[in-house]
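Researcher: Please translate sequence to structure tokens.
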Amino acid sequence: MMEPQRLPARQGWIWIKQGFALFMKAPLLWIVLLFICMVAAVVISSVPIVGQPLMSLLVPAIMVGLMSGCRSLSQGDELELTHLLSGFRRHTSQLVTLGGISLASQYLILGLMMAVGGSALVGMLMSDRPETDPTVMMHALAGAGLAVVVGIALFSLLIMAMQFAPMLVYFRNVPPLHAMKLSLRAFLSNALPMLLYGITFMLLAMLASIPMMLGWLILLPMVFTTLYASYNDIFPPLQDAVDTPPQDNIFKRDDSTFS
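Model: Translation complete:
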């Protein structure tokens, strides 16, 4: 049975270094790929009524396209624009199903928040027009204390469950629900490296925002390259159910590549 590796806390910093190394293999193309993704997301989401739900369904397929690019670079191959289509060429139905489960879970969580007194807050969050009146915002928050706690807890679990699920579906042929369970287990089993990774990334985000947000040209692609680094570390590649044979890559457990 596939089980996630339990790693020491220092791996959180190593994922940052590995992700940066992947970015530096093709920095300009990474920026172009992310720009294409953002434009596509804006266009799809802007479609009335169906746009945002459709985008939620497609997110896993788009994500594995970026992860496929990471896999190619880690094996010494080239990053290409066509990697973005990887999730629409293989396991597409499973990836869309995964997106559907995530979308349904979001609606269930919002419904539960409304049931425990967060109707005003949920209505504000789901409105097409963002609320700008601070008095209205404070009033909605003041009456939704329990709803906020419930929402944060459940959405956090959902994010953990979706963290590695698309890669498990695409690279390992794992069914969507089981992939979410494995992803949640992997996250909870590696709470310390995830905490170090999160803190480090937040500090980098503050630094990236200082020079007119220009640092995000590097940091935004690293969101995905570091995600692949953590996935590759927690679920070692020798177990991957991919078509290509295992090859040497930059992800050495002793971190000798970055010393």
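Researcher: Any highlights?
Model: Residues 13-238 form one domain.
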